Amino acid sequence: MELSSVDQAGVQTEVQKDIQFQEPIEKAQHLATTDDLEIAFSRLPEELRLGAQVVFRMVIEGKSRKLDPQVRNEACRIGREALLNAFRHSGASRVEVELEYAPTQLRIAVRDNGKGITEESFRAGPGSHRGLSGMGDLAKRMGAKLRLLSRAAAGTEVQLSIPAHIAFAPQTSVRRLGWAHV
């Protein structure tokens, strides 16, 4: 897991904290029943009843592919936690999620234009940013990489990169046999 905070002088600090998410695992798994991460993520602003408070945008790059079911659930949990953090804690007016279905990886990026995460905030004792560490632990367990980029007063970006051989469900190939003419 790579967690970093960039202060106003541009200095990066890496920090790790204990695991804990804002939502129970059962709720996140229920919401990930669709193979379509776009649908799961796009429902969140309505679910939180944000109205016009925050402009939400989704960008999809590449052709959507079927995900391994367990990876889909974990990616949904991480993406939802990042979105919940952006909507609830960042003070942002804009939140964007980008899904990239590349030949080599699935990449999910959640970014906002909020207040960012300061070094002091990272170091603020128990109860602070536990969800960030939880996202990192999940990413590590599935063989993915999590990056957190943040600058005070300039927003935050959470990037989850999952290698293709882990993220995407194996494609079944159907071989058609021709009929022999007798």
Tell me what the structure shows.
The radius of gyration is 18 Å and the shape is globular. The termini are far apart. Helix 1 packs across helix 4 (69-89). A hairpin with a 3-residue loop joins strand 4 and strand 5 (105-112). The protein has a single domain, classed as Heat Shock Protein 90 (2-Layer Sandwich), CATH 3.30.565. The chain has a seven-stranded mixed beta sheet with strand order 2-1-6-7-5-4-3. With 182 residues, the chain is α/β, with parallel strands linked by helices. Mean pLDDT is 78; it is low at 1-21 and 24-33. The chain has helices at 25-31, 37-42, 44-47, 69-89, 119-122, 130-141, 164-167, and strands spanning 2-6, 12-14, 55-61, 94-101, 105-112, 145-151, 155-163.
List the helices and strands and how they pair.
Blueprint: E1 2-6, E2 12-14, H1 25-31, H2 37-42, H3 44-47, E3 55-61, H4 69-89, E4 94-101, E5 105-112, H5 119-122, H6 130-141, E6 145-151, E7 155-163, H7 164-167
Parallel strand pairs: 1-6, 3-4
Antiparallel strand pairs: 1-2, 4-5, 5-7, 6-7
Helix pairs in contact: 1-4, 4-6
Entry summary:
With 182 residues, the protein is α/β, with parallel strands linked by helices. The protein is built from 7 helices and 7 strands, in the order ββαααβαββααββα.
